[in-house]
Amino acid sequence: xxxxxxxxxxxxxxxxxxxxxxxxxxxxxxxxxxxxxxxxxxxxxxxxxxxxxxxxxxxxxxxxxxxxxxxxxxxxxxxxxxxxxxxxxxxxxxxxxxxxxxxxxxxxxxxxxxxxxxxxxxxxxxxxxxxxxxxxxxxxxxxxxxxxxxxx
Length: 152
Description:
Order of helices and strands: EEEEEEHHH
Shape: elongated
Structural class: alpha+beta
Largest sheet: 6 strands, antiparallel, barrel
Helix content: 25-40%
CATH architecture of the largest domain: Beta Barrel
Strand content: 35-45%
Strand order of the largest sheet: 1-2-3-6-5-4
Number of domains: 2
Number of strands: 6
Number of helices: 3
């Protein structure tokens, strides 16, 4: 089954990844274990043990319990291309950890929150890691620019 296989429409570069996820569908009655081959902020390419057909809409569950709705874009043998929906649901444990980072940010500032995110390896989320690193670089640039100006 081939669905919109034109890879030229990708807006983000995919990054190689080797991690396990589950595809869930059929009101939670069907679960497929998959290996993520590559990922981007918009989706995943996964590989299954056997060629199979899946419905257009699935839920992707990561090892930490976080889930995201996804649309099946194509299936080629054992490989499946998935596009994320915009809503991500964190597991209860991940939500508690994320809230603790937010509290650190509110009470101790960006640097402490960034350090805490680094310690927790950004919860395994590449987009969060990139965003945090971009924010850190922007903060450093801002500090450098302010340092050049004399305040009287």
